[in-house]
């Protein structure tokens, strides 16, 4: 101790360490470092809001300025988590209102956020400047109005894919005339109209505005005015991109885009009409990110636009792009890092577009920097997967969704085990993988053997037996999140790998073969896990114990069973077990 | 041993019934593979083939499994894994001129709310008037060039590009949809007077 630096020096050194993992490592060195570090930590990321309690967080880190929280499991995005499951942010806000009066930033994902919570945020934190809500629900535009009205230093307000009730109270007009601090304003998921005059005035006076993402209620003829007032924009999400063919509007739009020389990202394009796309051409050379996933335009027009963007790094698009469009992408965009192709007609029985595995193969061949893929298609082959794996060993995210569950290799009718096996074997840095198609336990053997850096795995309609799950749990050393639906995985693999679950953030299993008995056993043996059985059919006690439960969500926690479980969720822990007797 | 459960969209008790029968004993159609499809077939060929009920020997094996109801397949909850707001991107191939709809507001005297309709979705006046009748639950009288709408308290009118209020039906349909800015269903004496101004 006599040789250690004074606290102030250590604190200063620690201030250069921002990464969460590094900070955590620092805190483990010795008791005094733990103490110093905890007092000077300013940002925290809580990947599962139920893994810890507000009180525990506040007790350890008294001086936070930035908090990120995630609530519901990922499969909530696809309606697999029943309404009312949990993820309420209010208790956190209420605790932080007391403990962190200087809180500046809040980032929430998949949480239930009420207007009361938003109002409390707006009143409790004098320096509040950043609010990012992703996939959240439970609030209305009244809550947004409170944020707009009361947060004097608001710099960032971003709403991504949230479900918001529109109360038509003109929330945007609640930004006071004195508000000039906005750097990012993003509300593409809102349904309702906003006051155009309020929007224009707001954009005019916020001279540092870099990101502006509108919703589709903002018509195209309002866009030129907005762009003219914000030539410094870097990230633009248009509103509706449709209008009658009017030469004066077209040229106004073209001029307005040309004035925004710093634009790097474009999105929006609802109801896009191809004839207005060339208005963006003047700035396309600088575009790094293009989100056309709402634009129902056909391949030739998509290709014309993409050919203008040789520096594109990220493309989100509908499958209207087709294989030929992806060929064009592969020849034009050599810097492409991320590709997402969404289905235009996911429930159609037959393909409505000519998009096959070929498109993805082309991009994997032509784009050497491709790392991240999300691809919906209707046919796949092992051969294509081999090619993709060979071409792109640098893939870090590979999410393939073959629309028909259990679809085999369409050429050989074999399972796609070998193809995905090639992916995990070649792509040694693969962090995220989503499987689809016909798959046996074999694929899981490959995954367990090779996917050593895999952190998140999504499985659906795959496997033959518990062996599959066992391979994954015993082999994937870096696994943090595992989500499974409709697979014949059951008790044995789960119980045999119980301790693995403590090293992961969470495990989701629905429509599998895990018995109530096994859940109880797991819950009793593993006090550091919350083993939650979710079943809307009624208490699992009312059925034989050996029968499979509906949904299972297991996550590690230091906060014990949560107090806000609805009637269709049961915790299998030791203390909870007493409730059943 | 595989256990498959088919989920329907609504709460379907049958779907929640636990069945541990032998594989292959339930009536799910998911067991069959996607069918032998030659990758050389063009898209239009495949679609045509699938649409025709009289299947030749080379038809897609999956055709045998499809129910009589077209396109409507038993949907599995949460599959394919896309967010709900992304589900409605399907638009049959349209020419550019067709792609942009002509949305106009429709008001009716006495009704507390307005409606919005896409004029492009109607082929002509009869369809449009029928739709308006259904939407606002009233009847429009018989149209005649000389007398306007007879036999009803209501008359459909529209505001054109010049800001003038016109009686619906006076001009050819194509001209109407390109000049109509909004519709108003007039009621009462105002309406009755409209036809007889000519």
Automatic annotation (TrEMBL), chain A:
Which InterPro entries has this protein been placed in? COI1_F-box (IPR041567), F-box-like_dom_sf (IPR036047), F-box_dom (IPR001810), Leu-rich_rpt (IPR001611), Leu-rich_rpt_Cys-con_subtyp (IPR006553), LRR_dom_sf (IPR032675), Transp_inhibit (IPR041101)
Q: Where in the cell is it found?
A: Nucleus
Gene Ontology CC annotation, any one: SCF ubiquitin ligase complex
Enumerate the SUPFAM superfamilies for this protein: F-box domain, RNI-like
- Keywords, alphabetical: Auxin signaling pathway, Nucleus, Ubl conjugation pathway
This protein's pathway reads: Protein modification; protein ubiquitination
Q: Where is the F-box domain?
A: 5-46
Q: Which GO MF terms does the UniProt record name?
A: auxin binding
* GO BP, sorted A to Z: auxin-activated signaling pathway; pollen maturation; SCF-dependent proteasomal ubiquitin-dependent protein catabolic process
UniProt main location, coarse: nucleus
Looking at the Swiss-Prot or TrEMBL record, what is one Pfam family this protein matches?
LRR_6
Q: What is this protein called?
A: Protein TRANSPORT INHIBITOR RESPONSE 1-like
- Organism per entry: Nelumbo nucifera
Question: What is the gene called?
Answer: LOC104585903
From TrEMBL, chain B:
User: Where do the PB1 domain residues begin and end?
Assistant: 101-188
The record's Gene Ontology biological-process terms are: auxin-activated signaling pathway; regulation of DNA-templated transcription
The primary site where this protein sits is: nucleus
Q: Does the keyword Repressor apply?
A: yes
Localization: Nucleus
Question: What GO cellular-component annotations does this UniProt entry give?
Answer: nucleus
Alphabetized UniProt keyword annotations: Auxin signaling pathway, Nucleus, Repressor, Transcription, Transcription regulation
Q: Which Pfam families match?
A: AUX_IAA (PF02309)
Under SUPFAM superfamilies, the record lists: CAD & PB1 domains
Q: Where is this region: Disordered?
A: 1-75
* Family membership noted in the UniProt record: Belongs to the Aux/IAA family.
Indicate the quaternary assembly. Answer: Homodimers and heterodimers.
What role does this protein play? Aux/IAA proteins are short-lived transcriptional factors that function as repressors of early auxin response genes at low auxin concentrations.
Q: What is this protein called?
A: Auxin-responsive protein
Origin organism is Nelumbo nucifera
Gene giving rise to this polypeptide: LOC104612448
């Amino acid at each position: 101790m006599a040789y250690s630096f004074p606290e102030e020096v250590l604190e200063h050194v620690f201030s250069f360490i921002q990464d969460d993992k590094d900070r955590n490592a620092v805190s483990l060195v010795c008791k005094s470092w733990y103490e110093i570090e905890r007092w000077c930590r300013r940002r925290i990321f809580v990947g599962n809001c139920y893994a810890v309690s507000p009180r525990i967080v506040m007790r350890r880190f008294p001086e936070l300025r930035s908090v990120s929280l995630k609530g519901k499991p990922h499969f909530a995005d696809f309606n697999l988590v029943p309404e009312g499951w949990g993820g309420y942010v209010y208790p956190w806000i209420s605790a932080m209102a007391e403990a962190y009066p200087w809180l500046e930033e809040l980032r929430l994902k998949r949480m239930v956020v009420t207007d009361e919570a938003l109002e409390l945020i707006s009143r409790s934190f004098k320096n509040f400047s950043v609010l990012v809500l992703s996939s959240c629900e439970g609030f209305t535009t009244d809550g947004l109005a409170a944020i707009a009205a009361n947060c004097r230093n608001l710099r960032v307000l971003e709403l991504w894919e949230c479900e918001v009730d529109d109360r038509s109270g003109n929330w945007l007009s609640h930004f006071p005339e004195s508000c000039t601090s906005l750097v990012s304003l993003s509300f593409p998921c809102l349904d309702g109209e906003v006051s155009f005059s309020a929007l224009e005035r707001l954009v005019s006076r916020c001279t540092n505005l870099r990101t502006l993402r509108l919703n589709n209620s903002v018509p195209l003829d309002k866009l030129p005015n907005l762009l003219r007032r914000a030539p410094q924009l870097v990230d633009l999400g248009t509103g509706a991109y449709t209008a009658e063919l009017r030469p004066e509007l077209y040229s106004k739009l073209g001029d307005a885009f040309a004035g925004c020389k710093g634009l790097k990202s474009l999105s929006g394009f609802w109801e896009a009409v191809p004839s207005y796309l060339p208005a963006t051409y003047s700035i396309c050379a600088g575009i790094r990110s293009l989100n056309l996933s709402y634009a129902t335009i056909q391949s030739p027009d998509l290709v014309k636009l993409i050919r203008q963007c040789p520096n594109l790094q990220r493309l989100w698009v509908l499958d209207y792009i087709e294989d030929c469009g992806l060929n064009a992408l592969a020849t034009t965009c050599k810097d492409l890092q991320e590709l997402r192709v969404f289905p235009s007609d996911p429930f159609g029985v037959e393909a409505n577009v000519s998009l096959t595995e070929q498109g993805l193969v082309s991009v994997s061949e032509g784009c050497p920097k491709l790392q991240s893929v999300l691809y919906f298609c209707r046919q796949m082959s092992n051969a294509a997967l081999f090619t993709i794996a060979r071409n792109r060993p640098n893939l870090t995210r590979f999410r393939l969704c073959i629309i028909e569950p259990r679809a085999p290799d369409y050429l050989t009718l074999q399972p796609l085990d070998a193809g995905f096996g090639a992916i995990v074997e070649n792509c040694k840095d693969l962090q995220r993988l989503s499987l689809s198609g016909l798959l046996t336990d074999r694929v899981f053997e490959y995954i367990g053997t090779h996917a050593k850096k895999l952190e998140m795995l999504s499985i659906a309609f795959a496997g033959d037996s518990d062996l599959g799950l066992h391979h994954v749990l015993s082999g994937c050393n870096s696994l943090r999140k595992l989500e499974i639906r409709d697979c014949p995985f059951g008790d044995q693999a789960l119980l045999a790998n119980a301790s693995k679950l403590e090293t992961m953030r969470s495990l989701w299993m629905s429509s599998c073969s895990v018995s109530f008995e096994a859940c109880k056993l797991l819950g009793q043996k593993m006090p550091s896990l919350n083993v939650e059985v979710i079943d809307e059919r009624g208490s699992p006690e009312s059925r034989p114990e050996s029968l499979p439960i509906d949904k299972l969500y297991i996550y590690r926690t230091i906060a014990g069973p949560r107090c806000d479980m609805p009637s269709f969720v049961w915790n299998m822990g030791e203390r909870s077990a007493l409730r059943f007797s | 041993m595989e256990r498959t459960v088919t989920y329907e969209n609504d709460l379907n008790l049958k779907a929640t019934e636990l069945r541990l029968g032998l594989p292959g004993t339930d009536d799910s159609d998911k067991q069959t593979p996607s069918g032998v499809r030659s990758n050389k077939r063009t898209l239009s060929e495949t679609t045509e083939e699938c649409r025709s009920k009289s299947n030749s020997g080379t038809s897609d094996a999956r055709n045998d499994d499809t129910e009589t109801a077209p396109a409507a397949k038993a949907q599995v909850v949460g599959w394919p894994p896309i967010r709900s707001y992304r589900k409605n991107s399907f638009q049959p191939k349209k020419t550019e001129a067709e792609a942009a709809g002509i949305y106009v507001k429709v008001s009716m005297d006495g009704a507390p709310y307005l409606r919005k309709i896409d004029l492009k979705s109607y082929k002509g006046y009869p369809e449009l008037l029928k739709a308006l009748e259904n939407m606002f639950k009233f009847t429009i009288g018989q149209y005649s060039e000389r007398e306007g709408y007879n036999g009803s308290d209501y008359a459909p009118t529209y505001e054109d590009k010049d800001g003038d209020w016109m009686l619906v039906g006076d001009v050819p349909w194509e001209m109407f949809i390109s000049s109509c800015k909004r519709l108003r269903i007039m009621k009462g004496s105002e309406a009755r007077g409209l036809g007889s101004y000519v």
